[in-house]
Write a structure and sequence with these properties.
Layout lengths: L1 E5 L7 H10 L4 E7 L18 E6 L2 E6 L3 H11 L6 E8 L4 H7 L1 H11 L4 E6 L10 H21 L7 E6 L9 E3 L7 E9 L5 E9 L7 H6 L4 E6 L7 H10 L1 H18 L5
Parallel strand pairs: 1-2, 1-5, 2-4, 5-6, 6-7, 8-11
Antiparallel strand pairs: 3-4, 7-11, 9-10
Helix pairs in contact: 1-5
């Protein structure tokens, strides 16, 4: 089994090497990351400039490093380094990634989604720590090791269930963790945006974003994590298409609108395009 281990917190994050240590005996493992933290960059990819890629050693490991984004790192691993993984692992992220809201923002989960788009299953791991130093907790490291190793051994033998492309795993830090594990869907929203207005030393106005927590929906990752102190495993599908029935229903509902659009476009094309000889 060939594994790529990556993240969005940069190659200096202890979480990256915590993940590597948990899986290094399960297959041939490669580490690639970004030079600087790129949290909340989502699915950003670099088109506007060339990328740098170098190999170094950190925390006793060989690691490839790029000055690009987490998505860039994955493509460089596969297309430039020629690594053909069976599974991509992303994390361990600094901060949880609960709710669809965070899933769409997260660079950690973006890498997993990008991997799935290319036909390679992926698992993203996140922990609700704020500082790198919190990864030093032996209990947290032990819990994370058990969860990571158990899931990857399962995937190695059984693969993903049908329809699942990505697993997003969130681990509460001690003492929040209560010893439970739940497979749950993602909540829709984690927080509502609000801004605090202020002025910089030169008197110019600025707006600083902070989040107002949303009420946790029952039977979701947020409720299981926040209210019950559980590790959450959320299966995700990257197919955002609606089912055939929904498409047919929308087409029927838009019938008059579509006819009107087609009529107007035909008239526009007749006026703008020269007649065929």
């Amino acid at each position: 089994m060939r594994l790529i281990v990556t993240n969005d917190d940069g190659y200096l994050s202890p979480g990256l090497y915590m993940l590597y240590e948990a899986v290094k005996g399960l297959g041939e493992t490669f580490i690639i990351s970004t030079q600087f933290p790129r949290s909340a960059t989502g699915r950003e990819i670099t088109f506007s400039r060339p990328l740098r890629l170098f190999r170094t050693r950190y925390m006793g490991c060989n690691v490839y490093v790029t000055d690009g984004t987490p998505i860039d790192a994955l493509h460089l691993a596969m297309e430039v380094l020629g690594i053909a993984p069976d599974l991509v692992l992303s994390g361990v992220n600094v901060g949880e990634n609960l709710s669809l809201q965070h899933i769409f923002y997260s660079g950690t989960i973006a890498v997993a989604i990008e991997s799935a788009l290319m036909g390679v299953p992926a698992v993203a791991f996140s922990v609700d720590v704020v500082e790198f130093s919190e990864f030093n907790s032996e209990l947290l490291r032990g819990v994370t090791r058990v969860v990571v190793k158990s899931l990857i051994e399962f995937v190695k033998v059984r693969g993903f269930p049908r329809g699942v492309d990505v697993l997003s795993v969130n681990i509460p830090k001690p003492p929040r963790f209560k010893g439970c594990v739940e497979v749950v869907k993602a909540a829709r929203v984690r927080w509502k945006a609000s801004y605090r207005e202020g002025r910089d030393p030169r008197g110019r106005r600025y707006y600083w974003l902070y989040g107002i927590p949303a009420k946790a929906e029952e039977d979701t990752d947020v409720a299981a994590f926040e209210s019950r102190g559980c590790i959450t495993i959320t299966p995700l599908s990257i197919d955002l298409n609606l089912g055939t029935r929904s498409i047919s229903e929308l087409e029927a509902a838009l019938g008059g609108v579509l006819s009107g659009i087609k009529t107007e476009l035909k008239g526009l094309l007749r006026r703008e395009l020269p007649a065929k000889p």
